[in-house]
Fold these 4 entries.
Entry 1:
Amino acid sequence: MELYVNGIGTLGPGLAGWARSRAVLAGESPSCEATPMEPSASLLPPNEQRRSSESVRWAVHVAQEALEQAEADAREVTSVFASSDGETGVLDRLCTALAMPQRTISPTLFHHSVHNAASGYWGIATGSQQSSTVMACYDSSFCAALLEATAYVHADERPVLIVAYDLPPPPPLYAARPLRGGFAAALLLTRTPAPCNLAQLDLTLSNDLSEEATSMDDARLEALRRGNHAARSLPLLAAIARQCVTLVRLEYLEDQHVLIRVRPC
Amino acid sequence: MSHASVHQHTEKDVSRLVEGRGSNQAVDNGPYNLQGRRHAVPQHRHVGARSMAPLILTHYTVVSALGKGLTETYQALRNRRSGLRLCDFEDVGITTYIGRVDDVEDMFVGGGSTSTELERFDCRNNRLALLGLQQDGFIQAAIEARERYGAHRVAVILGSSTSGILETEHAYCRRDPATGALPSSYLASHRYTHNMFSSAHFVRTYLGLRGPAMVISTACSSSAKAFATAARFIEAGFCDAAVVGGVDSLCLTILYGFASLELMSSGPCRPCDENRNGLTLGESAGFALLEKSEHAGRPGAVVLLGYGESCDGYHMSHPHPEGTGAIKAMQAALLRSALTPGDIDYIHLHGTATKANDSIEDTAVHSVFGSSTPCSSTKGWTGHTLGAAGITGAVIAAMCLTRSFVPGTLNTTRIDPSLSSHVLLENREQPVRRVLSNSFGFGGNNCSLIFGTI
């Protein structure tokens, strides 16, 4: 089944925005360990910008970039959010408060702790009432979201927005889950060609693990890919950036590969 | 090389057929001719859903405060025995009731004849999941599906809202006073206990499955949405069958969190009561084996006929005041199952017993179904089991279909006169052909499922 990529948003070390990322991933600009850009997430009202967590702002920021690039109406788009570890900053504050004798937690902190906080804020910011699914699959969370988005496009024909994001957890939890960098990527996918297409994808699920999953040639980007589930999207983004026919293999758990034939549009 | 490629969809797009709004055009629903099923398109606006081929729930089970497995659950519903008790969870000092599952504290995941690989998953959430798997022959059914389709062709798609966060709560009480570091035993087990994927990882490992897996986490709609994702995965050819369901267990986060929101009742919850004053928290685990009907069809089997998903796009913890998101989810489920509101015999409400939730769900149900379709909430029996509420509702719906039974609403003495839907207080014995079950969650995330029989 064919899918079309209409828009991409990225945020990460040296990869702030698709224009910059495309040049780096296509090998036109060197990768660099630049200070990660603060997400603007300007779609969020000032109140929500202040109250929402950093990971919510990262997710909304890339989602906004992908949609603006595709000139798509958020109210018509189904969304799939993928995060391995969710709101670790909020969970740290929550568990710290629960470890105190009085166990006082604020209502805002509590409702910000849900794994679907970014999806909820996206809905509030855009007014979209379309379905939004939020999933976790450890290091394969991006892959799981890609399958879900493909299945969604197949079942409903609406454009589907994938938003994958994870930030390094705060210190005590970092030792349990040492996620590197902070990375977020969003892709807007459609079943039929849209006015602006960045690539055509053909996706299959394979049990054949005889070939290695696609890695990044650049050591810095490869370290990012290995260190953050959301950056497992980098081989796909690089194939789109290079604008040539490529077969990308992404690991899905230890048992399967998602094969994506990427064709330039 | 074995590929599970995405094949071309052949069913007609229902949304194209409803352009003439209000017309009762027939829908070709493929080879699945369900007995007594009216092939008519609901009379409401296009909500973007296509019809689906029904999927069989070949096996299903649930564990909650009502008991372990279908028989105990049914008996408790039938005898109107609530599973709620005064809060006795750990040292929680909140005056409230809870729906706690007995014996989870004394369990251990791993040990015995199981491999040591499983021991690292040990935590309350996975113990509850294991207790669920052990009921009604579910493990054997899943193993048979694995042998029938191949381990790679059976998916595990579960819902959870808090996973094994209780382990992290405990670990934060044992931080190194000098460095603030968490205990090393916790650091090693975090991936297998608290991480959001943990329950699906555990169930998949336990059952020896190697197909697609994930945890859906959209708060209280999580395990309802697991059905929707599994249906899409089967339709797309990513798998032939799926273990769907969900598990959520009691923890400090939800008890103190809901207390902070002032949404928790001090007594057992009273859904739809004029004096209802909040929800009661519970815990549950439930599973269903979802398969295509041509592989597993038998007369009388329970099937998933449709699903509808939506968002409120309104507020993180308060539903849309006019219930527009809930309406959209119910309409999408009807459209996907090619049914009209009149085809639904019973609605299993989300019915959490908070003032706003019950009132807004009533507005939504009334706007789609009017005031004649019987509906009720079973939260007075089980408490609100959050991410596992969807599978709990699904299993109760399946029991209604197979046992010609409809539960009323427990603990409720007088139905709020401002509600317009047909809320049942008493249980009923009556044939039930189709049930719609609602699950609505924080972040304004909604899912409605429709079940029937073939």
Note: The first helix of chain A runs from residue 18 to 25.
Entry 2:
Amino acid sequence: MVNALTCLLKKKVTEETPVRDEEVEAIGRAIKTEIDAVFGRSLAIRELDTGSDNAAEIEINNLSNPLYDVERFGITFVASPRHADVLLVTGAVTHNMAIAAKKTYDAMPSPKFVVAVGDDACTGGIFAGTYAVLGGAEKIFPVDMKIPGNPPTPLQILAGLLALMKKARMQ
Amino acid sequence: MTPEQDIGTRAAQEFLGAAALADRLSTGPNNEQYVLVEETEFENAVAHLAANKFVLIGLFCCEGFARNAAQTLFYVFERRTSILVLVRNTGGKATSIACIYPSASWFERECRDGFGVAFEGAFDTRRLFLHETYPEGFHPLKKSFKNASVVTRATVDPAEEYPFRPVSGEGVYQVPVGPVHAGIIEPGHFRFSVIGETIFNLECRMFYKHRGIEKLAEGKQPGDCLKIAEAVSGDESVANATAFCMAVEKISQTPVPERAWYLRTILLELERVCSHLGDQAGMLVDVAFPLGANQFSVLREECFREHDRLTGSRFLRGMVSPGGLSRDIAKPDLDELVAFVHRVRKGYKVGLKIVLSTASVIDRFATTGVIRPALLRPLNISGPSARASGGKVDVRLNHPYGIYGQFAPKPQRLRDGDVLSRFTVKASEIMDSLDLIERLIAEIPEGDISTTPVIKDGYTLVLVESARGQNLCWVWIKGGVIERYKVRTASFCNWLAIEHAVQGNIVPDFPVINKSLNLSYAGTDL
């Protein structure tokens, strides 16, 4: 039987983070400063896949792994567009997703920002001008920031978000 | 011809007769066998193959094949190491075989949308990848349609919305989910019919991400299609690029240098490790065990960084090319990879021990989302999902390509078919892939990494084992450019398994069942 007291009194152990990535830290601190100034400490992001190859989603998901852990910089990924400040769009907009994508955008409260992540979302990429897609995200709603890449790395996505925050502060 | 390949020929002899077979059987560059079947013989042939345990692994269509200006259907059957393709000429109409081979249902609907082939007697004639906004009579894969923007409707009347299979009864209610989900995942619609908390029925509606991959490749030089093959599914880039390149190499009879195959195999196995780590982390997130999940997501991020160091791409893109590889990986880099593999293995064992000794995790995983072995053949379920349900399927073992003949993976096989079995099979596969990578680096020969292929016309069928299972690819080159590029990823078939796996489970277990099957939406929707 474990004595409850020993649990309370024994030395607490917290593991060191496996890798401390100075680049991530620097960008994260800058983002936090901007978010504090513009959004009152937290930036709520809704991710929307309108036809990507899933690589961009994987990278966006990676932002939450312990090596980036972006929540500590004030970035949260929310489950509903109704709670979101920013719509992070990946992939060219397919005809099959167009209606759902528009509904998602319309459900967001204003003021709202749209960020296109990856070549396909920025311009339609290799799919531009073909039968199955409308093109890049700007075909169906205004886009405030574009982060190119196939797919962009987590660091590039963070840099893009920082640029958006700076742009928002100017407005 | 090996005795195993003979299974296909023997079956064809039985349903056609030896005399008729002689001028109708041909062997493709990848040793797949094509048999031209007349309309009158077709039904009998399919019945014969079904009785002899052949699995329908693919069904696709093309136009203008071998003197038939209209549509030709290719029914790809597999039995052990033999691949038999029935070639059926149609004039736009054909009888359905979905009642014999349920996996044919989606295939037939795909051919109907793409080419306008009408399947008589089909139990499901709804559109598949062309959703309601596309105009009637639009068939994008027909040669008469030149790939260009089309005008679709901006809204859909409720009366014209996709009709889901009606499910009714006392206490049955519907839970519609998607296409936009709560998490950061791809779009798809799930229509649950639920009694209390228990799922009575699930119908998946996919193809929201249909972006016209197959049509996009047509008319392009093979070398220009790599980006398209890599865009089939993000974390299957190496597998799909390898399948495409293998097809081009087989058609043009280009020998691939040995060193290139060693490096390709290393990349294929790295991709598998990375994908499985992501699944396992996801499964643990879905049962609310972040301590375990983070063990694997840290390792996975380190894998991505290692990929970047080795190839300049976190998704290992731009490496595989027709004829071999686009660039070499130098010895010091490979030595560092060995050290990395050691580190991953050590870290992985620690994580696995934490997970498997946590009772709450085992409680959620065990007996959840069972895929019965009886479903494997009718639905052509492959990959870790099949191997966790007693299936002996692994393209690397059944149809060894590249150097998998010398470097065979350990056959994995569990029988329970639940989430825990899939988790455990993936754990064994990670360890096995790490071992394989080490062996490959230890024995890698020096030499060239690429032969420039001289593109020839022809067609062939290639199978590879991606992290998710059996990926099929059929390439037809005509006039030096791609005439038809057919991709069928493992997920296309495995999606149908989830409708069965969730029955009798509670709705809150759906995410973990879904993650354990690791289905690619992009790879299905194309």
Note: The beta strands of chain A are 43-49, 75-77, 86-90, 93-94, 113-117, 133-135, 145-147.
Entry 3:
Amino acid sequence: MIKVHADLDALKGFHEALVRFRYAQRGVAERGRDEIEVSRASLAAKAGRWQARLEQCQAELDACRAGEGEATADCSVYARAVEQTSERLEHVRRWQQRVDLEAAEFGGTASAYLDLLEVDLPRAESQLLAIITSLEAARRIPAGET
Amino acid sequence: MTARPDRDGDEQLGLLSTAWEQAARHWQDEVARHFDADHWTPLAQRSRAYLAALGTLLDMLETAERETEF
């Protein structure tokens, strides 16, 4: 039998801390996933708004150009609006791509960490509990009987 | 205001590290060394790496939100 020299209360405290940590980190991982989804949804909503705005600007530009035959209409204001709106839409889309890319990369790290929480950590808790149980049993045996 | 999850995770890891230090102070035999090498050190290292990666990602998400406000 392996002899364990330890403070029983400190080991029990550490075991309880391990269990609390596992639950807390699960919550951290869930909140991390939520943050990614909220960010994606927000960027998608922005892209949708700028897409609609671009279509509106383009329609205004087209209408202006269609009226050019009647008079020499200056459509530059509408053309600038189309250009600026298009740039903003592209800017949002680039951020969407970056978020997707980095979230996918992080997904691998997150998945491995969840495995650690779900598989390795309970194993550590069980081993520690076995050590505590063995230590408690050993301390119940009066000195001289070992 | 709710703290960011990576910061909450760091705080939890700090509490766990303190509990480990208290246990390890009185637990210095062969079993403790194995537990440290097989469980505690990998757990602490991987938790730190995960929380750092989460922090970097959340920083990026905040930047994305800010940079796309017109």
Note: Chain A has a mean pLDDT of 92.
Entry 4:
Amino acid sequence: MIGVIIEKEIRDLIGSTKFAVTFAAAALLIVGAFYVGATRHKLNVEQDEASRVENLRQMEGLTDWLRVESNRIFLPPQPLAALVSGVSNDVGRTVSVVGRGELTAYGSRYSEDPIYAAFRFLDLEFIFQIVLSLFAILLGFDAVSGEKELGTLRLTLAHAVPRSTYILGKIAGACIALSVSVLLAVAIGCLLLPVMGVALTGTEWARLGLVVLTGMLYFGVFLTMSVFVSSMTHRTSSSFLVLLVVWVMSVMVIPRATVLLAGRAVAVPTAEEVAAQKASYRIQLWKETRAQMLDFKPNGTAPDPAQEFTQFMDSLTDVRESRIAEHSGRLNEERYNRQLEQQKLAFALARLSPSASLALAASTLAGTSLSLADHFKNEAAAYQQEYAAFMKEKTGVVPGAGMVMIRVGDEEPQPIDPAELPEFTYDPLPLDKTVEAAAVDIGLLAFFNLLFFAGAFTAFLRYDVR
Amino acid sequence: MNNHTTIPGQPLIEAWQLTKRYEDGVLALDHVSFSVEPGRLLAILGGNGAGKTTTINLFLNFLEPTEGEARINGIVTHKDPLAAKKQVAYVSENVMLYLNFTAVQNLDYFARLGGRTDYRRDDYRDVLLRVGLPEEAHNKKLKSFSKGMRQKCGIAIAILKDAPAILLDEPTSGLDPKAGREFIQLLDSLRNEGKAILMSTHDIFRAKEAADTIAIMDNGRMLMQKEASELKGEDLESLYMRYMAGHAAQPAAAAESAR
């Protein structure tokens, strides 16, 4: 019997004008998100390539590696970031690496093209978060109350149909009809990627698959919630109104409100405050260095007094930079820990909303979560060491720390070859780590599905059919 | 076609001291008793709030009785609702079916829901023709159907269920005279097949035309139950109005006898 109900539900849903209109809109947006994402990714790759070439071009003609003030490295565009933007457009994509010192990423996509920041990109995450949740509500709000209003529920339950079977069939039918439709649109979108020349690796396909799975779980939450609310009300207008309020709270209010709440509950020093403390400490150490520099007297440890002075200054710089690094590290860590505490509180509260869980899980899986900035910085720091070793080999010193080194000698200057520079490669967080990080939110979405399903099931068993 | 077993002489539809008091204290049905044997039709007349639909809701187990029992073919509906529902077909006042489905698709769905997977397209065509729905309408979506056409589909669904008992809740409401006449003829044929029919209605004339027994309800009480033959020559409308106004000499006695 459940098969009969599922079949009817699928045919009834798919045959309705409401479905045709909402599905056409959702499908168009999903395919559109893939198209826009692929186009954007190709553009980003071109820009990234141009920036790399420009970076090396600036070094052409230099005859001494000491004249290389910095080497810019770039966060390479990730295809999944074009589908699930997360914070990828907000974080700096460029780091000027010198041999030592703190690294700062700058040049975010939004800072370069602020117009996109006004309304953000139309990506897959946005489609899932806004469009699919509305799609689920529009097609589920009248699942039970609509049948009651229409009168078909009385006729159906006048047959020997157990209520449990009926509600199971209804939910299963709606889930199958709507999920297959959405997955069809996603599949078309996925096909667009290789067609448009965006090649995904196996891991990226796996990540995309998990993002879609998370999206379907989120879709399921709103679908089961709609059936639940519909089973608690007797008029479609009431269930629609309730769902609209829940949707606004869940998608619009809770995630934003929790960030504000957490901001009030946990105070984090601003970046400017930390920078001021660092600058003050740096000035203090410079004063000490200057005093030591004035006291310098060659004692013949090197054949050449200039060379001895260079070694002396180098050792002073090493000590000073190490103290600055230690001090900065401490300040950064303190700020980072406060931020982490604030973030944990905000996310814990925000997870009351399935919408927040979707955003967190999808961006984590796509590698565009808040950890992107940290991960890029860590990768850049690792590269800095490689770069410092290279420069030391080439020049005998590690550049940076505000010191300008000039080579004195009568050797014939030879142009440097920028291609010799070590290449920066960015490795996103491994799949197992991201899955582990997203597991809580995926689990929460699954839990919400079960919760609303159980709610719909028990509410319908007691539903007043009259 | 009929797989239901009926015991000769046993009523197929039976209310015994059927009472329903809601949680807010309103007494919707007050110790109502009646029975409908195979091949007979009981019409319950009454105004809004008389308790007619409550009675039907109790037979369909959409409500549980506070006292008494509703029985379909001997099965107490609130004790074994699914078994009872297998024995009864139901047609509501405003038959509403799935508007995106054609008449045949609606029939097919409800037939299969009732466990009948043996019907073929010809069976659906035959039953739709029997209830007076022209063949050109069989494959049209219900959204284009008039109320009368939907009513015919509802009756076709009830016929296809092939249950020994039929509950009709205001079935002639909104039907034009021709459709009303055809409906009464259909009821005759169903009665001749041995079906027991309980019909709640406002329509005094159709009740007199179709019923074997006529009952009058008001405020949840059964005021009168008489064989149609006893009412021959009597102005049923005047009688009904007198009962409603409480002016008839009979009501009190009738109510007592109904208990």
Note: Chain A has 16 helices and three strands.
